[in-house]
Design goal:
The chain has 291 residues and is mainly beta. The chain has one helix and 18 strands. It has one helix spanning 4-23, and strands at 39-45, 48-50, 57-65, 71-76, 83-87, 93-96, 100-113, 119-131, 139-149, 152-163, 172-178, 182-184, 191-199, 208-215, 225-232, 240-247, 256-264, 279-287. It has a six-stranded mixed beta sheet with strand order 2-10-9-4-5-6, with no helix packed on it. Strands 12-18-17-14-15 form a five-stranded mixed beta sheet, with no helix packed on it. A four-stranded antiparallel beta sheet has the order 1-3-8-7, with no helix packed on it.
């Protein structure tokens, strides 16, 4: 018969052995007194948004269960017109409706210590699903997730709302123009220009042009030299974007003070709320060398 001291030492040895074995597995989160119960959570981010803001509707899935996972099934707007996404525990898509753009995430095994030092395996999944809002209608939408295991199905649902935010016209604004201040004429060097434009209107701006001009006053005139141009496919309401252009000075450029003028929607292709805020001016000095 073991003495009380021997029993205490044996129990300590068993605990140490189990702890060491678990730590060496490399898939432990932390030791707890008992495993967490099975749970599945689905939620939408954001809950309310504009349907044409150029961003994805995000659905997040998290689960912690005691059974291995066969597959995860996500149903959007359950019913006759529903769209279904099916993917495996590693996030590989098995079937997908048109509204689903991507799946990110995976499932991993977490080992925890239960009662009487028993080792329990749990399966933890964290996934991010991107939904293309252009494939949906304005209004309320319901999403349902089903985590399918050999023992059954665990479910949760979430709601989100899409609004029509196309109130008013687009409004393209020239925000910033960054270029070198001193421009040399020798050897036809190529210079960089960085331009930021913002659509501060209430709807998307369609395809339009950005043009960069050389002028000898701070007003854009028909005779000013076109240095560079680029095409912008679209810019959603409330969004800003930086653009890069390269340019050279014309052979007949005059030394001395001058101006670079950038103009968004330069061909007036977009019907805007305000047509008077499309240019940005930067003063430069044209010379032989940096002073």
């Amino acid at each position: 018969m073991l003495s009380a001291k021997s029993k205490s030492g044996l129990r300590a040895a068993v605990v140490a052995f189990v702890s060491l074995a678990i730590a060496s597995s490399g898939i432990i989160s932390s030791a707890q007194a008992a495993p967490a119960p099975s749970m599945v959570n689905l939620w939408a981010v954001p809950v309310t948004s504009c349907i044409e803001d150029g961003k994805h509707q995000i659905l997040r899935i998290m689960f912690l269960i005691q059974d291995p996972v066969n597959r995860i099934r996500l149903v959007l707007d359950p019913g006759p017109e529903q769209q279904v996404l099916v993917f495996d525990p590693s996030g590989h898509v098995l079937a997908s409706g048109a509204a689903f753009d991507f799946v990110q995430g995976t499932t991993k095994i977490i080992i925890k210590i239960g009662d009487y030092y028993t080792v329990v395996e749990l399966f933890q999944g964290k996934f991010k699903v991107g939904v293309d809002k252009d494939e949906l209608a304005v209004g309320d939408h319901k999403a349902l997730v089903q985590v399918i295991t050999p023992s059954g199905v665990l479910t949760d649902d979430a709601m989100f709302t899409l609004k029509d935010c196309k109130e008013g016209k687009p409004d393209l604004v020239a925000k910033n123009l960054a270029t070198p201040h001193w421009i040399k004429l020798e050897r036809d060097p190529v210079y960089n220009a960085y331009f930021i434009q913002k659509n501060q209107g209430g709807s998307k701006a369609g395809e339009h042009m950005i043009k960069l001009f050389l002028s000898y006053d701070d007003e854009l005139d028909p005779g000013d030299d076109l240095l560079a141009q680029l095409t912008v496919e679209q810019l959603f309401a409330g969004r800003s974007k930086m653009f890069h252009m390269t340019f050279e000075l014309p052979d007949d450029a005059v030394r001395g003070p001058a101006f670079l003028i950038v103009m968004t929607d330069a061909d007036e292709e977009v019907d805007e709320e305000d047509e008077g805020n499309n240019t940005r001016v930067r003063e430069i000095m044209i010379g032989r060398a940096h002073p």
